[in-house]
Amino acid sequence: MAFWNLDTLHLEQFRPGILSKAEIGKDLIMVCMKIEPGRADSGHEHEFDQCGIVLEGPIEMHVGSEARLLESNDCYFIPAGERHGWKTFDSAVRLLDISRKPSETSNN
């Protein structure tokens, strides 16, 4: 079991422009991410539901054909199999994201 304080949580390099800390359980993954300004993910999809809350924004997220500008305290839910992505603007974004752990045979 892990307890986090989001004000003092140490994040590590995950991908270029993204720092994160993940807690991986048997079925769920909880991730805190900080995404640098001017970054984007044009879209991807996976076999599991995903949800989260924006801790610091803004970030534009698109899920399917819908796009929305999200800021602090805005939440999102992404159904399994739905194409989704995001882009950041002039400031860093912090998210707390929850998803089901991918199966061992999944490529996503």
Question: What's the arrangement of strands in the largest beta sheet?
Answer: 1-2-3-10-5-8
- Summed over residues and divided by their number, the pLDDT gives a mean of 93
Q: What sort of overall outline do the alpha carbons produce when their principal axes are compared?
A: globular
What fold name stands as the CATH topology?
Jelly Rolls
Percent range for β-strand residues: over 45%
How many β strands by DSSP?
A: 10
| Helix vs. strand class | mainly beta
Oligomer: single chain
Radius of gyration in whole Å, from Cα? 13 Å
**Helix-strand pattern, N to C?**
EEEEEEEEEE
Fraction of residues in helices?
A: under 10%
The profile of the biggest β sheet is: 6 strands, antiparallel
CATH architecture descriptor text: Sandwich
CATH superfamily: Jelly Rolls
Distance between the termini: 26 Å
**How many structural domains in the coordinates?**
1
Q: Any idea of the CATH class?
A: Mainly Beta
- Give the helix tally: 0
Uncertain stretches of 5 or more adjacent residues: none
Write the topology of this structure.
Blueprint lengths: L11 E4 L2 E7 L3 E8 L4 E5 L5 E7 L2 E5 L2 E5 L4 E4 L5 E5 L4 E8 L8
Antiparallel strand pairs: 1-2, 2-3, 3-10, 4-9, 5-8, 5-10, 6-7, 6-9
In brief:
By secondary structure, this protein is an all-beta fold. Helix content is 0%, strand content 54%.
